[in-house]
Each structure stands twice: as structure tokens, then as C-alpha cells.
Design brief:
Elements lengths: L8 H9 L7 H6 L19 H14 L22
């Protein structure tokens, strides 16, 4: 078991490369089995890791077995997020 169980391998590798050592509470919450492949409404403080959490929930479906995205001929996901940042 690693600190990134449930995260697509390509994303887990990138997180490790970027120096992440553990997931935040919001990231752990979106990896719960009931959250996978569901529409999510996430509300948490700035800096809580929401953006990465959204990527985690979509990575397996969008990447499949690939390690990188190929060229897209249409949008693959929609995230609507008001932000102050």
C-alpha cells in the first residue's frame, strides 16, 4: 500500500515527483468508492487540494491505461469552479 492508493499510476508518479508525501482530506474523500465516476460538489478552503482532487477522480476514466493524454478532438471533462485565486 502506498500513500497514493486509488490514484491513477501516472498521476501518482507526478505527485511523487512534485514532492507530495500524502493526500489531503478532500483528496482522500473524493477517492472513496462511492465518489468514483459520480458528479461531485466539493467545498473546501483555499489550498486544500481541490484542483488535484478533481483530477484524481477523472484520471482513470480519461487516461485509461495511458500515461499521458493524446490529442483531444473534443472536451473530455467539465469543471465549473468559481475561484478567487
Amino acid at each position: 500500500m502506498t500513500q497514493f492508493d486509488g490514484v491513477h499510476a501516472a498521476l501518482a508518479q507526478t505527485l511523487e515527483t512534485k514532492g507530495y508525501v500524502e493526500l489531503t482530506p478532500v483528496q482522500l474523500a473524493v477517492l472513496e468508492p462511492g465518489a468514483m465516476a459520480a458528479d461531485l460538489l466539493v467545498s473546501a478552503q483555499t489550498g486544500s487540494g481541490k484542483t488535484v482532487a478533481f483530477g484524481m477522480t477523472m484520471a482513470a476514466q480519461l487516461l485509461g491505461e495511458a500515461q499521458r493524454f493524446g490529442a483531444a478532438d473534443s472536451p473530455r471533462a467539465l469543471i465549473i469552479a468559481p475561484t478567487r485565486e
